[in-house]
Input
Amino acid sequence: MSVRAGGGTADSPGMVSDARRGRRTGKPGNHPWRNLLFALPALIAVALFFYASIAFIVNASLADWNFIGAPKPVGLGNFQRLLVDPIFGKAVIHSILYGGVVLFAQAAIGLGLAILVSGRVKFGAFYKTLFFIPVIIAPGILAYVFRRLFDPGGEMSQFMHGIGLGQLWQPWLAYPETALWAIIAMGIYSGMGGAFLIYSAALTQIDREILEAAAIDGASGRQSIRYVVMPLLKGTHAIFAIFGLGAAIGVFDIIYLSTEGGPARATETISTYLFKKSIVEFKGGYASAISLVVLVVGLLLTFAILAFLRERPSRKPKEA
Amino acid sequence: MTERSTSVKRLAALSAALAIALGACGTAAPPSAPPAASSSQAAATASAAAVESVSPTVDPATVTGDITVSLWDYGNPDSKTWLADFNKVYPNVHVELKNVDLNAYRQALQLQLTSGQTSDIVQLYESDTPQYKDVLEDLEPYAVKTWGADWKSKFAPGALDQQIIDGKVVGMPQYLAGPGSLFYSQEVFDKLGLKPPTTYAELKDVATKLKAAGLQALALGVKDGWIDTYVYRIIALQADAKAQAEAAQCKRPWTDPALVKAMQVWSDLFTDGILSKDQLAQAQYPDAVDALTTQKAGTLFNGTWHNQTLTNAGYKVYIDGRTLPDPSHQYVLRSTNFPAVIDGAKPVYALGTHGWGINPQSTNKDAAWAFIAWYVSEPGQKWIADSTYIPVWAGMAPSYTDVITPDQVNDIKTQTDYIQTGGGYVGPTLILTGEQTNALTDALQGVATGAQTPDAAMAAVQAASGC
Output
């Protein structure tokens, strides 16, 4: 497949060639400027609400500003403070831990459940509904329920004491050593239904004949999943990872409603710290610097995920 | 309510409190309803009637037109009631209330005030007022015109502390409330033969007996920094009335012996079993408050705003949906001073208030001022008094008409007298920066978990204080 000047290929002429042809033939809607015109409202919206916002944040990050009075320029002072801010360091580590564990667990559980109910399964629709329910629970309710569960007099405590494992129970959200893990458990629970849905949809797109062919070639169920299903789900992994990354970095509600980042900052994440700095402490400039760092790191991680999951040439099987 | 709080939960707590308070206002008690026909109640009723006959502070004939008021979510349904009262006096002023969730409100107000695109009147969250100093109308000329040059003397002690920033009158106070109360269950205390503690030793003894009875000793939502810092504030005031206020202004280090001592007492509350490390998972609202309401705890630390649970209307709200040991029984919640936990000290209260400010871009500032002047003076403060809050207008006292029992009337009256004239409020109102409040919260929770010593915790506060 040779690439031609003008963007098209020998096999498929491409959009630019089509457009040129459109001009020659006078077909409506194929003029580039006209296409641009149609895209203009969206472009303006993106420029205004996305790029202008970033420009605003960049500007604010270079100032000592409470978002109300006149900003005082401080150059890179906010970024220098960030580098030595121990709480920000903690928040970054907690966010990475939360994001990594929650993403991996949600993907594993979501995919596992999707595989379990794929194909013809009795009460399949019931199971699918059941697995998806956590997604529609409002974070406020979820946080309240989990706080109740983990409360010293709560249901979890009563259950564990009831089955004779009371000595293993502790108020997970109360102790710095366990609070983040309790939050992670909440995060996994709240998002696994979404992962299940994404993987369920992806599994339905896999041609059954491929799996049948693998079976005919002697592949076991496990081998089919590892060597056939998983490679075919690479795109889904990428989408899930990117969306999940955004959700993990931005997670705020369940943490703030459960622990407010405590006890003693044990569950402080970037988003809760950002909120405290901007809204509670009126440190608008500093909060903007945090936002900018998060944006850059988020973009870098997104590119890294895409690069990692980019399709590579498959290895040639060893010849016997 | 004195610190520059950082906690959304405190806001929720106060929101709930005022919602109930205004609920009490809106739920007009039938003449036969109050069972406590005490002389103090009769006096209060007479006082309320007298207040209703007071002339409005700004001549209604001079103001007309539309004004908008931005406020956060609590009290919206009931605000219609007092708004109707306002409109009886000012029929030519149309007020539109713009109620939003408090968190969203605080975020939006930052941007709205920067651009000037906001309502004529804005509600000011107590600790945020200093931030709005440069973007709100100076209310001093209005106050002088309405009440005369000595207008400040018309307000209760402490009422204006958080509204006057660097000499500028940024806002006018709404109501006074603050921490320093100990609530307890009459039934539990009677059953165990306990008396309200007045010293640390007595508090420890009561806690031991409560725990032996299988109850939580002192309900407190240690998860919430706002209530932790309130407890610390009360202990620090007992240790040295000026220490924390001076530390907040960098006039004294946070490692001052009095402040370290206060932190040591906070630590002792945990090591002596009065508080438990497990309470780090509990929120003040609803967890700690529910623990007392449902008789699972014997006592509760809270603010004067919680006196609403001593009213018929407030009690109904707080028990709604809760499982009580005997659902048919009306439990009696009592209120007293939090004990003097520092040897030789006396009980203290810390007061504070939210405020009303005027947008300098308003096109109807006279009507906006008429509204504020009505609200903060006798006619408007009647609603505050009815909610058991302490009015900001000097000489007014909470109303006791809906308080359930004579003992409870006495509880609130004793507290209020102690705060207003008995030296219970020592002032000045403390204003911490957000960074100081968060650093103090970290320190308090660090000590509660056992991860930090009181000395190390206060050194960390000093390091983060910006001083």
